[in-house]
Amino acid sequence: MTLKLGVIGTGAIGQEHIRRCNNVLQGAKVVAVSDINTDGARAALQRLNIDAQVYQDGHEVINSPEVDAVLVTSWDPTHEEFTLAAIAAGKPVFCEKPLALSAEGCRRIVDAEIKHGKRLVQVGFMRPYDAGYRALKKVITDGEIGEPLMLHCAHRNQSVGENYTTDMAITNTLIHELDVLRWLTEDDYKSVQVVFPRTTSKSHAKLKDPQIVLFETQKGIRIDVEIFVNCAYGYDIQCEVVGEEGIAKLPEPSAIQTRKNARLGNALLTDWKDRFIDAYDVELQAFINDVKAGELTGPSAWDGFAASVAADACLKAQNSGGIEPVDMPSRPDFYAR
Ligand SMILES: NC(=O)c1ccc[n+]([C@@H]2O[C@H](COP(=O)([O-])OP(=O)(O)OC[C@H]3O[C@@H](n4cnc5c(N)ncnc54)[C@H](O)[C@@H]3O)[C@@H](O)[C@H]2O)c1
């Protein structure tokens, strides 16, 4: 059986997901899309050579009898409404990060899903599907480096636009680390502090860049994450785990090595789409397979909520300059891993 998908939001990642669902992955096809810019949606479908119904309102996609499951790839403020509507319609929904704009919004989704009685939501955290992060997690869980004590991480983008603000470094950028580091360490955050080094001259008035986010986890692991979104040299994700018996590091993406003009070189990536392109494929294939098997196993609404609780504490810490608690409620049995 082919799973019939409806996609809400046909912008950058919406088009990427439509392309991969129809042209790369197995067992699903996009039959309906919506975007407030219907002309843009039609043009995107034409470019991708895909025949699907175009709606203006995302609720029409959700409620279409032709649609078995929904992908929400519209702007952040719309995620909560469409995810709640999909739950109300009893349809599985893959929602891009962030699940909602606040922890309270994520909690409403968690509560609706628990009330429904069965998992319907997967959040678009793709890093747990990245081969490098998976290998790193295996080294940790196999006990190869002993118990993790410290993590040194970095999330660097080449540059960002004028509309990117200091808080977006948390809600838009760090949100991936907030999820993947919980998954990697199987731990929750206890407290957080944000410190601001000297700001780069490549930034603008509304953005303090770089930032360093310092966490303590419930088990006492110390984590530092550098967010540097105008680093100039490329798109670079780093994660080093220091354990009791050794150190494990996220592998670099494979790149051709060159020897030229008395220099040894490896090209670096500049675009996030390329860095995690395989992870997006694996993530969405898993969603399709799980929906067909009747049980979702990927990043849950609870994971979306947990990342959002931590993000809210980070935002508080950005403003206070002090150490802020991360008040994470205990996980309901419904979301037992
Ligand atoms: N997982 C990841 O790595 C990743 C990467 C990029 C983006 N994202 C997330 O995906 C979402 C989209 O990002 P993008 O870069 O594609 O943005 P974008 O601006 O390119 O596209 C968003 C699209 O949503 C449409 N839209 C807005 N409101 C809508 C509504 N009510 N109904 C239907 N369509 C609506 C816009 O017209 C636009 O075409 C964001 O929430 C972003 O955080 C996740």
Provide structural commentary.
The structure is a single chain. With about 325 residues, this protein is of the alpha/beta class. The chain has helices spanning about 10-25, 40-50, 60-65, 80-90, 105-115, 130-140, 170-185, 270-275, 275-295, 300-320; strands at about 5-10, 30-35, 55, 70, 95, 120-125, 150-155, 190-195, 210-215, 220-230, 235-245, 245-250, 255-260, 265, 325. The strands form three sheets. It has a seven-stranded mixed beta sheet, covered by helices on one side. Strands 3-2-1-4-5-6 form a six-stranded parallel beta sheet, with helices on both faces. A two-stranded antiparallel ribbon has the order 13-14. β13 (about 255-260) and β14 (about 265) form a beta hairpin. α4 runs parallel beside α5 (about 105-115) and α7 crosses α10 (about 300-320). The longest helix has 20 residues, at about 300-320. The radius of gyration is 20 Å and the shape is globular. It starts with a strand and ends in a 12-residue tail after the last strand. The structure holds nicotinamide-adenine-dinucleotide. The site of nicotinamide-adenine-dinucleotide has 22 residues, from α1.
In short:
The protein is α/β, with parallel strands linked by helices and 337 residues long.
Task: Output the number of helix runs.
Answer: 10
What would the principal axes of the Cα set say about the shape? Answer: globular
Q: Please tell me how large the radius of gyration is.
A: 20 Å
Distinct small molecules bound, one entry per kind: nicotinamide-adenine-dinucleotide
Distance between the termini: 28 Å
Q: How many strands, what sense, and barrel or not for the largest sheet?
A: 7 strands, mixed
User: What's the CATH topology name of the largest domain?
Assistant: Dihydrodipicolinate Reductase, domain 2
Order of adjacent strands in the largest pleated sheet: 12-11-7-10-9-8-15
If you average the pLDDT, what whole number results?
Answer: 97
Reading the helices and strands in chain order gives EHEHEHEHEHEHEHEEEEEEEHHHE
Task: Report the CATH C-level class of the largest domain.
Answer: Alpha Beta
CATH superfamily of the largest domain: Dihydrodipicolinate Reductase, domain 2
Helix content: 25-40%
